[in-house]
Amino acid sequence: MAACENTISPGANGTGKPLYGLFQYSTNMIGLESLADPSDTWEIIETIGKGTYGKVYKVANKKDGSLAAVKILDPISDVDEEIEAEYNILQFLPNHPNVVKFYGMFYKVDQYVGGQLWLVLELCNGGSVTDLVKGLVKCGQRLDEAIISYILYGALLGLQHLHNNRIIHRDVKGNNILLTTEGGVKLVDFGVSAQLTSTRLRRNTSVGTPFWMAPEVIACEQQYDYSYDARCDVWSLGITAIELGDGEPPLFDMHPVKTLFKIPRNPPPTLLHPDKWCRGFNHFISQCLIKDFENRPSVTHLLEHPFIKQAHGKDMSLQKQLADLIQAQQQLGSITKTRYCAIHCSVAFN
Description:
Layout: E1 42-50, E2 54-61, E3 67-73, H1 80-92, E4 102-108, E5 116-121, H2 129-138, H3 145-164, E6 167-168, E7 177-179, E8 185-187, E9 194-195, H4 215-222, H5 232-246, H6 256-265, H7 279-288, H8 299-302, H9 306-309, H10 315-349
Helix pairs in contact: 2-5, 3-5, 5-7
């Protein structure tokens, strides 16, 4: 297997690791002095989640009222390479319906907490596929196989777009596949993505979330002569497929560090109850989870898999089904919250 020399994450500027937040961002990192103040354009409406390095908010455009999501990065140090990698990828990646749109980066000066970097992105207000499947599992239900096929089809199209642009996502998982309320499927969170040059088509830096990490990516952490390519995203998508079926990835109840020892040594995982799912879904997962990545199919090959092809030509009807499911889950969530408040408020006042 071909190995590659040590690599530096895209965006590393060779000037050391600039500190930011309480220690002011380095202006030569991504030209902070040229970034606009977000307060002129965007107004925060509410918190909608927490990303890799900071909170995510829903924001409104002051000029036209359009909505977006903003990732406001925490005032901590030593994550500049990941931030710059995400910025570089989002800035130059052509738009694609299955990849979240990038609206710009802003810099807000604050003398009390330090400067804040704002990454403004397309708002995917249907939540993540993890949110959706966990909500169903709580109700004793599961995702329909046709909907799973549609979600995986969208994720594969998004990954194909990244790979065609020589980008490995490296952190594919349910929480990084977002949904719109119209049933759109979008890849998000490029904080640990790798850009590949024509002379370096493999990586040997280990990143990702342990439960979803491919064996060859874990091997790079342990042996410097190991490498991997874009097919590590295929393994992670296979684990995500199991997550869509079972509600959790394999080994989810194990300590994350222990999984790093188990994944390379265990046989490829399967659904908890394979017999309760169709042969096509089981076979798709088995193809994604071929341990030797040299024999693992690419995303382009997997787009032709029979389980995925069932979504071809049915995009609109499956998108409508997914949109209805998202709406039902969101309404159920609102009812649950209302009941919670009613119970706890009555206890508090009695």
